[in-house]
């Protein structure tokens, strides 16, 4: 995650969680489950940093997009007695990934009705080895009962200097990767 620019509060919290997780595993203790709610305006990179966490931890990411939904049907699935029944997205992801330690991303979860969230949190699926990440635009859209159970993390917009550094780094890599442009990589400046 160190290659990712910004996201300092979230990276610090994830590092602490992972240090405690490793310590508990060594000592044979069970790690307390933590739900992280990533807060920030649309397009700031909440889903992006979730993907990077999964990539860095070499764990599968189960991405459940709840935007535009008013129920949790995508999570719960349908009854096996119904024609065309399907399992919920969490069960599908856990069975396909063959890895109980997945990272589950509930994207735009605040858009699901309060009743749906209450039903979802009472659903019996073993997620004890999973890391649960939820994204929301603003804290006031997150129901109180979720705020009481979750770690709220503000995802801040990268500063101008961080963005310039990122662009310069990416452009430099791109230039260096082509023998015809490699000599231009050392000539990059912020004024460029």
UniProtKB/TrEMBL annotation:
InterPro entries membership: AAA+_ATPase (IPR003593), ATPase_AAA_core (IPR003959), Lon_Prtase (IPR027065), P-loop_NTPase (IPR027417)
Q: Name one GO biological process term.
A: protein catabolic process
Q: Which Pfam families match?
A: AAA
Q: Which domain of life is it from?
A: Eukaryota
One GO molecular function term of this record is: ATP binding
Q: Tell me which residues make up the AAA+ ATPase domain.
A: 32-156
The protein's name:
6513_t:CDS:1
Q: Organism, per UniProt?
A: Funneliformis caledonium
